[in-house]
Amino acid sequence: MDLDQTLLCGVEIEILLKFKSDRLQLAKAHGYGEPESLFENNTNRKAVRHLLARVLSDNEVETTVEEHGKGQFSTWTVTDDPSIHMAFPHDGYYGVEIVSPTLKSNQNWQRDIEHVWEVLKEYFEVKCHTSCGTHVHVSPGGRFSLGGLKRAAKAAILYEPAVRSLVLERRRTSVDPSPASQTQAYTLTELNTRTTTTFSSGSTLTPTKRLYAAT
After folding, report:
1. Please, are residues 164 and 172 in contact by the beta-carbon 8 Å criterion?
2. Secondary-structure percent of the chain, ordered helix, strand, coil, rounded to 5
3. Do residues 181 and 139 make contact, with C-beta atoms less than 8 angstroms apart?
4. How far apart are the C-alpha atoms of 177 and 118, rounded to whole Å?
5. What is the C-alpha separation between 111 and 173, in angstroms, rounded?
6. How do residues 15-71 score in pLDDT, each as one tens digit?
7. What's the pTM value of the predicted model, to 2 decimals?
8. What are phi and psi of 102, to 5 degrees?
9. Which residues pair with 133 in a beta bridge?
């Protein structure tokens, strides 16, 4: 992995959303109602996902809804993640996962993410729960070279304290993924087979089978 090589990354945002009061009429037109039962609660979760996808698309962020899975990483995707805290009736907050398309380091990916958050805050109240999180998956645009892999491994260990300081304290002892300094060793062949390096919850060199392929 050369220093001038394009990097690919994908972002997964797990959050709780609640329609703003001035957006309720729009929400009700998409099937949203008072969550007085578990059935209506699930219906509302679906309405939140579909309306979120619509408002993002209307604001030049092409977005699709995936009821199962995370899509093909060609557009932004809104999906249901059962690991996110279930909202209680009358709470009004519903868990969603927002998955980015494949982002490239030589493009203005920062602006893409900022724009998604601008739209979110315009239509929804946003909060987090201990079950929420943000995952960032990073991979080289090509294959690892031996020299590039050595530099990445050294950087992972060197900057691990700095990365871990950005992570919530309760996540710093997470077993999955584990810190880079405690990560199982892999051969170069094994790493190239896995392709993707995950930067998540303080772990900076944990191979994963999830692939954000170049598009």
Report:
1. yes
2. 35, 25, 40
3. no
4. 30
5. 32
6. 998 888 888 777 777 777 765 554 456 778 888 888 899 999 999 999 999 877 667
7. 0.71
8. -65, 120
9. 14
